[in-house]
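Inverse folding, one chain.
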């Protein structure tokens, strides 16, 4: 295959190319590219279908508190920092693109159906309190006062007023427009190989033969981030796909609304959540399955989601079922993202966001833009340093 060299600024002998090439045009790749271009970097994105990826399936919960789990406490601070950035982030995107990304300060209600769920929820409350998070315990009756469609069997719940939502599909569309307006070059072809010269990454070769030369290459390919050929063995990209099946239903236009805030619960050990949008869409998710690259929607997956959600909101089975889909979360060994420099100078990661990609998008964009311009991952993103899984942890130049 012949190779063309595509450069943003062709100088003599091929010249410098891009300051940054981002491999992957999903949510994380686009937010990285947008923020990088905003810092004046000549930026390109390589993706055959930019604007796709896991975000098209995601529910969009901004759940810094209700996704806090034992053993994952280091996620909390950056998650709260990113949540705090969301209102300005959404407003900026609306101003730049004219798209409302569906950021809605609706809060979340975490409910319990039986004594076991209740004990587990009390544990969550203790964990939240230990971290200074203000949540409030409600009786079953108080839960139903907030959300009258909840089942009589709901025995109590936690009111979490800081966990909100955004619409990931609108978000990705807005970011694509924002990238175009910021001058990001979109190469609609897959990156197939990293190029390395000496001990430095120098860009990528695309499936159509084009070679993109770049000072820095950011791997932001979601669960496929580990698949790029040419990445040296000492550079760890430990990300795997974790399947999630998710449903979309349509709520009636009614007052009071069918559901006014996100409701979530653990039913028979499985997490279930319901995210109501202003548009009338009700997102019901999601399975968590270790099934490699399988994205099949299964009868069992749909049945389990509807069965569990029906226990929370019996009226739900009357609603039209609009969509059933499966996506792949990009998950790292410790469930936290992989951000910033790797053991190979010139190669950075922005992947591994697992269940929290939408929440962490503002922080990720800022952190990667900082790293690309200053050479260092900012302090707030350090818990996510990509090099934590590399054999060689030494600082290397970015
Ligand atoms: N963020 C929720 C999920 O991954 O299902």
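Residues assigned per position:
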């Amino acid at each position: 295959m012949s190779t063309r060299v595509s450069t943003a600024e062709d100088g003599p002998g091929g010249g410098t190319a891009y300051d940054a090439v981002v491999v992957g045009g999903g949510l994380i790749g686009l937010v990285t590219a947008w923020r990088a271009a905003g810092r004046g970097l000549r930026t390109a994105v390589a993706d055959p279908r930019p604007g796709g990826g896991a975000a098209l399936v995601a529910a969009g919960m901004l759940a810094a508190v209700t996704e806090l789990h034992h053993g994952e406490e280091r996620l909390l601070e950056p998650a709260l920092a990113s949540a705090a950035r969301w209102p300005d982030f959404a407003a900026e995107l609306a101003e730049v693109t004219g798209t409302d990304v569906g950021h809605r300060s609706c809060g979340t209600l975490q409910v319990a159906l039986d004594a076991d769920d209740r004990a587990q929820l009390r544990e969550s409350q203790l964990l939240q309190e230990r971290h200074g998070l203000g949540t409030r315990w409600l009786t079953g009756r108080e839960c139903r006062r907030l959300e009258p469609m909840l089942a009589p069997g709901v025995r109590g719940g936690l009111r979490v007023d800081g966990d909100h939502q955004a619409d990931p599909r609108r978000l990705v569309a807005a970011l694509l427009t924002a990238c175009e307006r910021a001058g990001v070059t979109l190469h609609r072809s897959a990156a197939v190989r990293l190029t390395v010269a000496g001990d430095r990454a120098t860009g990528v070769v695309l499936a159509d033969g084009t070679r993109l030369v770049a000072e820095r290459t950011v791997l932001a390919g979601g669960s496929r981030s580990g698949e790029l050929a040419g990445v040296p063995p000492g550079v760890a990209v430990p990300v795997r796909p974790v399947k999630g099946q998710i449903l979309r239903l349509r709520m009636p236009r009614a007052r009071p609304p069918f559901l006014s805030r996100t409701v979530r619960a653990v039913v028979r050990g499985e997490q279930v959540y319901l995210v109501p949008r202003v548009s009338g869409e009700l997102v019901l998710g999601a399975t968590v399955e270790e099934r490699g690259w399988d994205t099949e929607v299964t009868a069992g997956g749909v049945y389990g989601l509807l069965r569990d959600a029906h226990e929370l909101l019996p009226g739900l089975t009357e609603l039209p079922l609009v969509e059933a889909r499966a996506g792949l979360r990009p998950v790292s060994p410790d469930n936290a993202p992989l951000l910033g420099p790797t053991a190979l100078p010139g190669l950075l990661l922005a992947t591994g966001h697992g269940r929290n990609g939408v929440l962490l998008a503002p922080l990720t964009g800022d952190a990667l833009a900082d790293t690309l311009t200053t050479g260092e991952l900012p302090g707030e993103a350090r818990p996510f340093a990509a090099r934590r899984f590399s054999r060689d942890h030494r600082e290397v130049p970015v």
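The radius of gyration is 22 Å. Residues 10-16 have pLDDT under 50 and may be disordered.
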